[in-house]
């Protein structure tokens, strides 16, 4: 007869078994899987988990950094939400098969990333967009010589910053490192050897090169070509403008050039491609009511050229308003039509009568109801009232953006079709804590605004404001992002010249007696997908080119 096992013996055995199991540790069920299976599993993880996986081992670091994983994350975070937003604005629906597609050429406004032979670092691209969405960047500065008169002109195009002033001529700088001067050409190569001041600058991006046009105070303008591959800046030709006074504004869309002189003469020119100096004036018009600030725009199609001039004027009812004149030319320079509109109706909250002839619209003092059922009286008081002229304006079709001294911006949507030209709605944009000195907007609705003190730069996505146009629904500060350089306080000290980059050929000393506090002025040189460049006058005789890098 067998003896019964004691209960104490059984408990001891179970305890030893648990200890053995605990010494083995958790079972690793992932390392034995193939890379294909692991990539499929990682594709379901959020960004925070992918970042953790990169710190586990070399294998997981390589797998979690796979470009296709980040490409899908990029699409989910940035591409698809924008497509949904635009579909709701246009009152359309997305196709049923609008899920992720590996073909970047099918993504909205991402064709530049699908160029032949171009390999995109999707993790870096995701980081770039993430930094833009949070305003995170690094700030670097380049100090320029004492401010000449007129001040330095600057433009950003295809990763190159072009500056123009009377002392140093036309210079090209690398946007990645603005302290590096790529090329330089003095203005004395023109027919007049005397020093003249540049008053306007325009740049157009060509295949493998950039075309630069500089306008001067004597009404002349010079043409230059910058070869991207060799970084050679070459003077091409000098021409006399249509006006007798200084060139005040220019817009270029090669091979066409639009310019305005100080005597309010608007002229359109055709620039012959190649190394020849032939420039033909296509049209010239005299303007009587153009008041600064103003902006020019030039668009081309297969059949016509559309030149647009936006200017400010005072309206007795709603204060300072904007006038928009659109001129249509054929390729030979024949004027096809001229159309004029303003922002007055939008400032009153009136929707345009698009179904009536333009002559009938001017005779009507009432406005048809949006549903077409009845007529509504024109409001007595405007919803948008500006007592002071705009401090700056920017127009990139269809977006028109102005800045004001009352800490606000105003956005308009310009609609131009074969039958009509009108402004759809107007929306005040809030978020700045001081007067806004300058704005720039792209045709995709991305905008940069700079406060008058220079320490507040905000990023706007104006596509999000389209649904609120013409309504009382505000577009608040939460809809914009303030740029916050990570290294501004720790690396940069405006009072310490030793902490600023300075080009070698621009070494100079500033008299300490002149260093006193003055209101800073700034000019937004431009921005692209990776950076914002700002030209700022900090103190007397001190000009800084600031580069805000989001990479």
Automatic annotation (TrEMBL):
Pfam families in the record: Beta-prop_pof12 (PF25499), F-box-like (PF12937)
Record GO cellular component, one term: SCF ubiquitin ligase complex
Ranges for region Disordered: 1-28, 351-377, 471-506
Keywords assigned: WD repeat
GO biological process: one example: SCF-dependent proteasomal ubiquitin-dependent protein catabolic process
WD repeat feature ranges: 429-463
InterPro entries found in the cross-reference section: F-box-like_dom_sf, F-box_dom, SCF_F-box/WD-repeat, WD40/YVTN_repeat-like_dom_sf, WD40_repeat_dom_sf, WD40_rpt
Coiled-coil region(s): none
Transmembrane intervals: none
Residue stretches of biased makeup (Basic and acidic residues): 496-505
Domain F-box, first and last residues per copy: 27-73
Record SMART domains: FBOX, WD40
SUPFAM superfamilies from the UniProt entry: F-box domain, WD40 repeat-like
Keyword Iron-sulfur: no
Sequence ranges of Polar residues compositional bias: 471-485
PANTHER family (alphabetical): DACTYLIN, F-BOX_WD REPEAT-CONTAINING PROTEIN 4
Function, in words: Component of the SCF(sconB) E3 ubiquitin ligase complex involved in the regulation of sulfur metabolite repression, probably by mediating the inactivation or degradation of the metR transcription factor.
Subunit relationships: Component of the SCF(sconB) E3 ubiquitin ligase complex.
Family per record: Belongs to the WD repeat MET30/SCONB/SCON-2 family.
Protein name (Swiss-Prot/TrEMBL): Probable E3 ubiquitin ligase complex SCF subunit sconB
UniProt source species: Penicillium steckii
């Amino acid at each position: 007869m067998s003896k019964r096992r004691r209960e104490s013996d059984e408990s001891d055995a179970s305890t030893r078994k648990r200890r053995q199991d605990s010494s083995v540790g958790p079972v690793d069920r992932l390392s034995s899987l193939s890379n294909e299976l692991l990539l499929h599993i990682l594709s379901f993880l959020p960004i925070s988990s992918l970042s953790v996986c990169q710190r586990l081992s070399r294998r997981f670091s390589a797998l979690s950094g796979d470009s296709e994983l980040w490409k899908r994350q990029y699409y989910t975070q940035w591409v698809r939400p924008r497509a949904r937003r635009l579909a709701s604005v246009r009152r359309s629906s997305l196709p049923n098969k609008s899920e992720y597609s590996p073909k970047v050429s099918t993504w909205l406004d991402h064709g530049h990333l699908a160029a032949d032979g171009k390999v995109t670092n999707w993790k870096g691209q995701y980081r770039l967009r993430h930094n833009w969405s949070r305003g995170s960047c690094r700030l670097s500065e380049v100090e320029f010589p004492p401010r000449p008169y007129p001040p330095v002109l600057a433009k950003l195009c295809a990763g190159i910053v072009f500056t123009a002033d009377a002392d140093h001529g036309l210079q090209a700088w690398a946007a990645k490192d603005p302290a590096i001067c790529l090329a330089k050409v003095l203005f004395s190569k023109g027919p007049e050897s005397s020093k003249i001041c540049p008053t306007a600058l325009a740049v157009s991006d060509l295949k493998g090169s950039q075309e630069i046009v500089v306008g001067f105070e004597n009404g002349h303008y010079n043409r230059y070509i910058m070869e991207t591959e060799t970084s050679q800046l070459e003077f091409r030709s000098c021409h006399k403008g249509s006006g007798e006074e200084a060139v005040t504004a220019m817009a270029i869309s090669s091979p066409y050039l639009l310019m305005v002189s100080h005597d309010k003469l608007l002229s359109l020119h055709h620039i012959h491609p190649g190394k020849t100096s032939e420039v033909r004036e296509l049209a010239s018009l005299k303007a009587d009511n153009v008041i600064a600030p103003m902006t020019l725009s030039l668009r081309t199609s297969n059949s016509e050229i559309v030149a647009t001039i936006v200017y400010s004027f005072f309206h007795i009812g709603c204060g300072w308003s904007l006038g928009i004149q659109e001129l249509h030319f054929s390729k030979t320079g024949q004027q096809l039509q001229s159309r004029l509109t303003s922002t007055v109706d939008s400032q009153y909250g009136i929707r345009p009568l698009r179904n009536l002839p333009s002559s009938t619209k001017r005779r009507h003092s009432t406005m048809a109801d949006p549903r077409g059922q009845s007529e509504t009286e024109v409001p007595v008081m405007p919803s948008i009232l500006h007592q002071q002229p705009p401090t700056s304006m920017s127009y990139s079709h269809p977006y028109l953006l102005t800045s004001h001294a009352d800490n606000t911006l105003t956005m308009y949507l310009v609609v131009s079709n074969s039958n009509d030209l009108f402004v759809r709605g107007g929306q005040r944009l809030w978020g700045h804590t001081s007067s806004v000195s300058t704005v720039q907007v792209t045709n995709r609705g991305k905008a940069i605004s700079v406060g008058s003190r220079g320490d507040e730069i905000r990023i706007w996505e104006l596509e999000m404001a389209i649904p609120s146009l013409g309504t009382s629904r505000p577009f608040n500060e939460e809809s914009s992002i303030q740029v916050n350089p990570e290294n501004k306080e720790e690396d940069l000290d405006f009072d310490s010249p030793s902490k600023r980059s300075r080009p070698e050929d621009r070494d100079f000393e500033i008299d300490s007696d002149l260093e006193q506090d003055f209101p800073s002025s700034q000019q937004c040189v431009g921005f692209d997908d990776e950076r914002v460049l700002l030209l700022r006058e900090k103190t007397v005789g001190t000009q800084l080119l600031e580069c805000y890098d989001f990479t």
